[in-house]
């Protein structure tokens, strides 16, 4: 029997002792208002036990973690057809990189880089009656929590400074891989990134990916083939040009966001979420990466 609470506390204490050399994301000005000192971890076992430490119950902007929810919803709606418009190869490049998109004729490398997520947002816009409402409803349903909301201030802050995403969307549009208006797709995309959740809610929401497509209440949302594919995409592409490093150090499928959150999971065993807002140079949480490395090393629980 593992002493999970003691392990989380040990990790938290050890990370509080080291110098945090990460930087808060400031290219979305509203994100830069958060304290660098925050550090939370929440662990949920497939059997239902929960363990938490630090700021695990404080909500933050999930940013790119939302790309996993949009991918899951698009899979639900259009199945493998989405693969005609977005590839599933790691990009080896930063999340906002554009030159590959031009080289590869407007087909994004994968759904977790910005350009890929913008194509997925376009697919959702084409297939949902009330896109923002329906997407939020989907996230709430996975989490079993109706309190989850968008943060309008963060969405607006990102819109004002979102030149790189406008460039990506315009390039996609020029290649014919965006069916709706650039402005509408980006409005949806900025909102999905602005969703506020805490570490516990993230472990609840990601339960489906550890439990063959069934959520906490045992409702089937995705089939096992879709879950296999989403986990594979998280493992190979979830951390951009640090995906290899995350697999090497942590050994779990997962996803990060520039709000400082990371969620990871071991199929059939657990989901874990960390939040520490200061980022390393690749845009992934500096302390979150280390927390997860320590966790899988101490517990010997990883996919490898
Ligand atoms: O599009 C952006 O730049 C942000 N809304 C999301 C980026 C992000 O979270 C990258 N993840 N590490």
Query: Which sequence of strands runs across the widest sheet?
Result: 2-1-7-6-5
- Helix vs. strand class: alpha+beta
Unreliable stretches covering 5 or more consecutive residues: none
Average pLDDT over all residues: 97
Strand content: 5-15%
Name the overall outline. Answer: globular
Give a quick set of tags describing it.
7 strands; globular; 5-stranded antiparallel sheet; alpha+beta; 304 residues; two-stranded antiparallel sheet; binds 6-diazenyl-5-OXO-L-norleucine
Concise account of the structure shown:
This protein has helices at 4-17, 66-78, 99-103, 114-127, 131-143, 152-161, 163-174, 182-194, 199-205, 207-210, 224-237, 243-249, 286-299; strands at 40-45, 50-54, 60-61, 196-197, 254-256, 261-266, 270-275. It is an alpha+beta fold and 304 residues long.
Describe this structure in words.
It is built from 13 helices and 7 strands. The protein has helices spanning 4-17, 66-78, 99-103, 114-127, 131-143, 152-161, 163-174, 182-194, 199-205, 207-210, 224-237, 243-249, 286-299; strands spanning 40-45, 50-54, 60-61, 196-197, 254-256, 261-266, 270-275. A hairpin with a 4-residue loop joins strand 5 and strand 6 (261-266). Helix 1 runs antiparallel to helix 13, helix 4 crosses helix 8 (182-194) and helix 6 (152-161) crosses helix 8 (182-194). 6-diazenyl-5-OXO-L-norleucine (DON) is lined by residues 63-64, 95-96, 114, 158, 165, 193, 256-258, 283-284.
Task: Draw up the topology in text.
Layout: H1 4-17, E1 40-45, E2 50-54, E3 60-61, H2 66-78, H3 99-103, H4 114-127, H5 131-143, H6 152-161, H7 163-174, H8 182-194, E4 196-197, H9 199-205, H10 207-210, H11 224-237, H12 243-249, E5 254-256, E6 261-266, E7 270-275, H13 286-299
Antiparallel strand pairs: 1-2, 1-7, 3-4, 5-6, 6-7
Bound molecules: 6-diazenyl-5-OXO-L-norleucine.
